[in-house]
Amino acid sequence: MNSFLTEDILKLLIAAGLGALIGVEREYHSKSAGLRTMILISIGSTLFTVISAKLGGDAGRIAANIVTGIGFIGGGIIFRENNRVVGITTAATAWATAALGMCVGIGYYEIATVSSGIVLFVLYALVPVQNIIKRRNQLRNYRIVCKFQQKTLKNYEMLFRELDLDAKCGIQSRVGDTITGTWIVQGSERKHEKLTKILLNDPEVIEFDF
Hints:
alpha+beta; four-stranded antiparallel β-sheet; two-stranded antiparallel ribbon
């Protein structure tokens, strides 16, 4: 077998392996782009890079097109769920995986290997750090519906201050004898839980969500 062909096959196998390592983590956490997706992204970017080198085209233009293609995939991964934007980390992972595939395609195996290790470190090792930050500081969107009375919503703003929660008032609306208020509230997980408990036991609250 031609030595160049053998090297190209090796590149595809390495790309598949690196994509699989990253894909396993995404699959384990039940993300929209998991094992197969990351392998295909890695192999695809490697294959495009190898082909562009063989055709003698503008490598920079091929690389730019790969990045553009990954941008479309990333746009499909990111979506809104319950007033939150989710999938950004998975989209960024797909973007990084494509870059790894390109590194393998041009023969920069060391850079690809080290970079994949860094990606895995970010996805695995930094989760506890992220959880600590979330426990100490969370941002939640609260919507409270209650019976309309004068200064009703002001009472809840006072409650936020009493619990040392930073609240920014959003849309307020009244329908019949009920009034709805929304706030963006920032504070520790413990304070949020205390607020939730108070709202659950408040007879004036018809419904609320966050």
